[in-house]
Every structure is written in C-alpha cells, then in structure tokens.
Amino acid sequence: MEKFDVIIAGAGLAGLAAAYTLAQEGVEVLLIEKGDYPGAKNVTGGRLYVNPVRELFPDLWKKAPLERFITREGASIMAGERSINVEYCGSELSQEPYQSYSILRAKFDRWFAKQAERKGAMLVSKSRVDDVIIENDQVVGVWAGGDELRADVVIACDGVLSLLAEKAGLRKPGNPHDYAVGFKEVIELDSTLIEERFGLEGNEGAARLFMGEVTRGKFGGGFLYTNKDSLSLGIVVGIKDLMEGSPAVQAPILLDEFKQRPEIARLIKGGESVEYSAHVIPEGGLKAIGKLYGNGILLAGDAAGLAMNIGVTVRGMEYALASGYYAAQAVLQAKEKEDFTAGSLSGYEKLLNDSFIMKDFAAFKEAPAVLDSPRFFKHYPELLGNIMKDVYEVPAGPKGRLYPTIKKYLTLKEMWSMAGDMRKVMKI
Predict the structure, then answer these.
(1) Exposed end of the chain (fewer CB within 10 Å): N or C?
(2) What is the C-alpha R_g of the chain?
(3) Strand partners, 231
(4) If one looks up domain 177-282 in CATH, what number appears?
(5) End-to-end alpha carbon distance in the chain
(6) Type and span of the H or E element at 84
(7) Which stretches of 172-303 are assigned E, i.e. beta strand?
C-alpha cells in the first residue's frame, strides 16, 4: 500500500493545474489519468481565455504550445438556407497581452503535464480510478486498477459525470437538463489557406459561434476555431433536447449536416479530418453546482460543474485551471494544520467565492434558464432570415419600402413576445 500527500484523479486542466501548484510547493502528488496520455481524452472547443488565469501561472504562457491569438470574433445565425453573420475586430484583441488563444488539448495537456512532472508530480497514465476509500467518514485514498492508494486528500478532476463525487456522497446522479453533449473534429488545413479564408495575418486567429438551424433549432450551437494548421469544428446540443421529440436526432448527424452547409463547406474545403471526439458538458450553471468539498476530498473543473454558456461565449478551461489552482491552495492551507476534514478544506469554497469563478457564475446565474427557450434557437433565426431575405431581395418589378417590409413580420403579437424575451435576456 502506497501513501501520498495528495492523489489527483484526472489529468485534465484542473488536475494538471492542481498537480503543478502542489508539486512546486514540495507536496508529494500522484496524478492518475485513464487516457493514454494527458489530453488524449480531453475534449473542448479549443479556446482558452488567458486573462483570468494569467497571474495564477505567470511562468507558463510564453512557453506554452498555444495555437493562435484570437483577433476576430464572429457569430452566425442560421435559418434554412440563409445565415446572418456578425464579426467583431477590435484593436484591443490584437495587442499583447492577448485575451484568448485557440489551443489543441492533445498538445497543451501533454506539455503542461511535463511541467508538473518537472516540479515533482508523479503521473500515471492508462489507469482508471474506480472508487474512493472511506474510513470513519473520511476519504483516505482511492482504488485504481486494483491497487489501494492512500493520501491525505483526494482531488477529483474526473470529468462532468464524476464517479468519485458520487462515491464520496457530494452529489447525486445528474439531471439530463443540466448537460449537453459536444462533438468535434479537428480538420487539418494549410496555414496559408486558413489565413486567406479568415482574413488573418501571421499568428492571428478567428473564433466563430453558430446557432439556429445548425442544431435544427434545438438548444445548443456550433463553433469553429482556427489553429496554426487546422480548424476545430463542432457542435454542442442539449441532452434533454436530443432525448425529446420525434423522431430522435443523433448529434453526429447534426455535425455532418453542419459541415455540408455552404457557409462551412467553403471554409473547410481541402481539409482532412484528423481527429474526432465527443464529450458531455455541464450546462446547469450556478444552480447545478453542489458541494465541492468533503472530508478528505475536493472537486475541481468539470467534476465541479464549472463550465458556462452565456450564448455569445462558452467558457470552461480557465475555470478548470483556476479551480485546480485554488484546490491546491486549500490543500496547502489544510496541510499547515494537518487537518484534512471538511471544515479545514472549506477554505476552498472561500477561495472560489473570492475569485472570478463564482463571481462569474453569480453574475450569469440566469443564463441557463434564459437560453432554455426554443424561440432563441428556432423562431428568431427563422424570423431574422425572412426579414433579411425581403430586405435584400430586388424583384423584377418595383421594390417595397423597407419599413412596411419589416413591419409585416413584427406584428403586435410578435412585438409583445419579443418584449417578454428581451426582459429575460436583460437578466444575463
């Protein structure tokens, strides 16, 4: 039987951040990853907002294998054979320190794991943590691959459906309403073509979000991020929406349909799909976050439910990095007292509440309920598509005035419904 100061289950960003932070303080850390290597099973859209975590890991960013810094922000509303596109380019996006980068997790996570190992962390891949060991109501270790491994503290970073969180009694099985599923392809494409098609220069990058027909009007949307010599393209769909309705829709089919749309097909033309992955994503927001600590255990990253969709941005990676860092800080505080009970580890909650993490979740606590309305994903894309069609159409005969053209769609009933939806949006 082996004993460590801390065992971390899962070498995603949360687990790596915790391992790195603890190891550099001389703590004996065992990091267990079920994939072939860190990043092999970690799926994300591929965009990291660096600003919130820059100072937590000041030595990382100049050396990290980041792809492109994002200088172009785009949003597309798709309806049938039509789309309405908005693009934002601001000088602040093109100036250092850059706000966000596209990343490839297979590259980034492996590199980050090496940094943690250099600090002294021990990494074991291809090993799954099956259960926690509980004695006298205290988590004292884990079972992994038939081995009994003990520690003062276990940090569960084992993903959105965290088995360890359930085993430790910190949460019940999740509600499908609080989750979505993401499907993603990495499409290899020459860097010159990427720069030409997206209007980029050098290491500049573009990010685009899509909603509407891309998910057949169901909760969710599509995303596209430019990497150095590839594109990350995918969709996210609410699990509840996939389960409801007849006939049922299979998410992989939605991704294929998305790729075939002319707007997307021309961007990925000539590219080769080199990676395909799928992942469950927490979408419940603040109300879905349960207890994040117990006797001898902490939760971080997706296991803690720390991902957020507010429509125009989808964030999770910086929350994972920061929660791993704060989990490590809570362990260091507890280690000073040699007390690893829930009362001692509760400092984790204060650290999270004082950080940007919980302040963000509190500020956008209404976002999941607002975005739950199908009108945002089906009705409004179709309405806007029809309006824009008539506005830009030039018939063989005389063209109608713009005001009556638009007004015929904006009836009193429609305006009243829009006002109600606007009141909801104002809560975000």
Answers:
(1) N
(2) 23
(3) 187, 226
(4) 3.30.9.90
(5) 50
(6) strand 82-88
(7) 179-188, 204-212, 220-226, 230-238, 272-282, 293-294, 297-299
Which residue, 131, 118, 127, is CA-closest to 37? Answer: 127
How confident is the model over 74-122, as pLDDT tens digits? 999 999 889 999 999 999 999 999 999 999 999 999 999 999 999 999 9
- What distance in Å separates the CA atoms of residue 51 and residue 370, rounded to the nearest whole number? 27
Alpha-carbon separation of residue 262 from 76, 83, 117 (angstroms): 13, 10, 46
The one-letter amino acid code at 72 reads R
Bridge-based pairing state of the strands 308-309 and 297-299: unpaired
Nearest 10 degrees: Cα torsion 349, 352, 355, 360: -120
CATH 3.40.50.720 fits domain 2-66+103-171+290-354: no
Cα gap 341→140, rounded to integer Å: 11
Q: What is the DSSP letter of 247?
A: S
Dist CA 422 CA 191 (whole Å) = 41
Average pLDDT, the chain: 93
Structure tokens, 292: 């994040």
Domain boundaries, the chain: 2-66+103-171+290-354, 177-282, 370-425
Q: Which residues contact 238 (CB under 8 A, 6 or more apart)?
A: 177, 179, 180, 218, 219, 220, 283
* Residues contacting residue 110 through CB under 8 Å, at least 6 positions apart: 37, 38, 39
Q: Which alpha helices (H) appear in 39-167, and where do they start and end?
A: 105-119, 163-167
Q: According to DSSP H, which parts of 77-155 are helical?
A: 105-119
pLDDT tens track for 388-425: 999 999 999 899 898 999 999 999 999 999 999 988 88
C-alpha 170/C-alpha 14 separation (Å) is 18
Separation in Å, CA 47 to CA 16, 138, 158, 220, 344: 17, 37, 20, 17, 35
Record the tokens describing residue 328, joined without a space. 């490590």
Q: Return the residue matching tokens 């959105």.
A: 160
pTM above threshold 0.90: yes
Distance from C-alpha of 82 to C-alpha of 383, rounded to nearest angstrom:
11
Work out whether strand 138-144 and strand 2-9 pair parallel, antiparallel, or are unpaired: unpaired
Q: How far is CA 283 from CA 39, 352, 359, 424, in A?
A: 22, 19, 17, 18
How far is residue 255's CA from residue 232's CA, in Å, rounded to a whole number? Answer: 12
